[in-house]
Design brief:
heterodimer, A: 536 residues, two-stranded antiparallel sheet, B: 0% strand
């Protein structure tokens, strides 16, 4: 058992258990959570360094040889994903220290958060289709509870849709796993990669491929299976939204990339062409959905869908350069999208609403926050020199090289519409003058929106106001605590913005790394040899 | 036997999906439970049905005689049942909370977060 592969699983597991043992002591839980998240980032970077230096690393849990035991395996793609999970995990854990309310913390927020990270890391490291299913379920149960935590009406409605569609996808996934096992007699990814072409006819393989595409497509929010995402992601607190937006759909994308480079490569003319068409439709519907929205987090939610299109565009093109572009895009998107949700939470802290109409004037009141929004927003839209430009450029170049002009044109137009959406948020939230009646946004919201929707920010706004009053009444120590909470909220936003800029400026070395990861994906023999050994 | 189970599985999927499409949130729950069981039966059936042949190696031999039941598929189903049970238990509590919070079991009344 290689420790480097076990650590990204043991650290969040240990942290979650320790947080549960410290039930009722939120101060201890907070420290544990921060330490666990930092440890996970360290373990992720260590894994990335190991895999980059020594090639694909695999281990068999319990010492059973490969196709029989539980395999943990990390190629460069998986290692990159684990490292980014650690980064987002630390950023959101820090942000939660500053923003999470005491009631949610008392009901186990920290423990659930680390269960979620455990599931995400496990899914990245699983070397076996059934284990992938199990890790998906670990991640899902964590996300279900996090989404419902707090019990507000909007959250409940969002959760029921999210849970239903995800359980349906899980049933579909498990059905596909069952049929795959019946066909091939093994579920080890490396073993399947070798054996599937021998035992299954191309037609059967395509059928299985489409089952997996539907199951993972729901989880990744691919067209036309994305409707659950904008119905649920804007309902929980910003910290929860941010980690969902950053990581969860990307696990679905990761699974798609994994099975469609390792298992179902018998007929790329059919399967990958389907993915390419879906990619284009996902981009367009996502961005058009965003154009119609008038609420900060709903716009961002629709943009997640649109960006998923770019990630699977690289898979649809199915060349090493395109896969490298996809991986680069996933990393860029996770960092940027998490940051945008964190900024939306900071705006909510200041104004008590996410609706665009009552917001405004923040450029004058909080110019630093405006700048911190502009960096990820422009990066999302693909402005040079930020990371989104390099990511889009890589995909467009790969598309032109493959003569896929329709998808390239779609990608460019959608990029323009993304810029339009970000400009809309910029104008409405930061640039325009604040509406004359600043307080009581809930009352002015009532006619245009549902009472429940308006009720959610109203509760928060009241909470912020009372906190402010309490802060002024309390002693000097409370003031220092409030400053600490503000710092905890702003530090991850600044950190992720700096990383976005660096990632854009250092795109060349970063792209070399993703190109190596893509080369490993494009040629699965290295993966198979690392898991099964040379003898087989 | 396989044909019979295939019919059962098909029936369970159909009933499960039909229940999920009803307006009542409790029927949604029942639909998910049926779907879960149909999936377990898919794994059971697709791994090959063998009657009364446990995969046990007799003393002195190195392999069990003749075709045996596949223990891996059963281990998979066992895991899937446990996970399905846990998730369903969560779902029951969630449905209870949703009905309490929203005040109705009608799914059509839960559209305020939709777009």
């Amino acid at each position: 058992m290689t420790a480097v592969l076990a650590l990204p699983l043991l650290i969040p597991l240990g942290t979650a258990v320790a947080c549960l043992l410290a039930w009722g002591r939120p101060a201890v839980q907070r420290r544990l959570s921060l330490a666990g998240a930092a440890g996970l980032l360290g373990a992720g970077l260590f894994l990335l360094w190991t895999v980059a230096a020594r090639g694909i690393t695999a281990t068999q849990a319990g010492g059973w040889p490969a196709p029989f035991g539980i395999t943990l395996v990390a190629d460069l793609f998986a290692a990159i994903m684990v490292a980014v999970t650690g980064l987002v995990g630390l950023a959101v854990a820090t942000y939660a220290l500053g923003t999470m309310d005491a009631r949610r913390e008392a009901f186990g927020y920290q423990a659930l958060y680390h269960v979620l990270l455990l599931g995400v890391c496990g899914a990245f490291l699983a070397g076996d289709v059934f284990n992938l299913y199990v890790w998906f379920e670990v991640m899902l149960i964590g996300s279900f509870a996090l989404l419902a935590l707090g019990g507000e009406r909007a959250q409940m409605e969002g959760t029921i849709k999210y849970v239903t569609i995800n359980l349906l996808a899980s049933a579909l996934f498990l059905t596909a796993v069952g049929i795959l096992y019946g066909v091939a007699g093994t579920l080890n990814l490396a073993d399947l990669s070798r054996r599937l072409p021998q035992v299954a006819s191309p037609g059967l393989q395509t059928t299985l491929a489409m089952l997996f595409l539907a199951a993972f497509g729901i989880k990744a929010a691919v067209f036309p299976l994305f409707f659950w995402l904008p119905a649920s992601y804007h309902t929980p607190p910003a910290a929860t939204s941010a980690v969902f937006a950053g990581l969860l759909t990307k696990v679905g994308v990761y699974a798609l990339l994994r099975v469609f480079t390792l298992l179902f490569v018998h007929d790329p003319g059919t399967t990958h062409r389907v993915i390419l068409v879906l990619a284009g439709l996902t981009m367009v519907t996502g961005v058009l959905g965003a154009v119609a929205q008038r609420e900060f987090r709903r716009i961002l939610s629709f943009h997640i869908i649109s960006q998923i299109g770019y990630m699977i565009m690289g898979l649809g093109l199915y060349t090493p350069a395109a896969l490298a572009g996809s991986i680069f895009y996933i990393v860029h998107h996770i960092i940027v999208k998490t940051n945008l949700f964190l900024v939306s939470g900071a705006v909510w802290r200041l104004r008590g609403t996410y609706a665009l109409a009552p917001l405004g004037g923040l450029y004058r009141d909080a110019p630093a926050l405006a700048l911190l929004f502009a960096i990820p927003a422009l990066s999302l839209a693909g402005m040079p020199p930020l990371s989104g430009f390099a990511a889009k450029l890589a995909l467009v170049q790969a598309g032109l090289a493959g003569a896929a002009y329709a998808i390239v044109a779609t990608a460019l137009v959608v990029g323009l519409l993304t810029l339009f959406s970000m400009t809309k948020i910029w104008h409405e939230v930061f640039w325009k003058d604040a509406p004359e009646v600043v307080l009581e946004p809930e009352e002015r919201l009532l006619p245009s929106m549902g009472r429940e929707e308006a009720g959610l920010p109203a509760v928060g706004a009241r909470g912020v106001r009372t906190a402010g009053v309490r802060g002024s009444v309390r002693s000097h120590g409370a003031g220092a605590q409030a400053r600490g909470r503000t710092l905890a909220m702003l530090a991850p936003i600044v950190g992720l913005a700096v990383i976005t800029v660096l990632f854009g400026l250092l795109a060349e070395p970063a792209f070399r790394l993703t190109a190596r990861a893509a080369a490993q994906l494009a040629d699965p023999t290295g993966y198979v040899r690392a898991v099964l050994g040379d003898a087989r | 036997m396989t044909g019979l189970l295939a019919l059962v599985i098909g029936g369970l999927y159909a009933v499960g999906l039909y229940m999920m499409l009803r307006r009542s949130i409790v029927k949604l729950l029942i639909g998910l439970a049926l779907l879960n069981n149909a999936t377990n039966l898919v794994i059971f059936t697709s791994a090959g049905l063998v009657r009364a042949r446990p995969p046990i190696v007799p003393p002195g031999a190195v392999a069990p005689p003749g075709p045996t039941a596949d223990p891996v598929a059963q281990a998979l189903i066992l895991t899937a049942i446990v996970i399905g049970f846990g998730v369903l238990a969560f779902m029951v509590v969630l449905v209870h909370r949703v009905v309490q919070t929203v005040g109705t079991d009608d799914l059509d009344a839960m559209r305020s977060t939709d777009t």
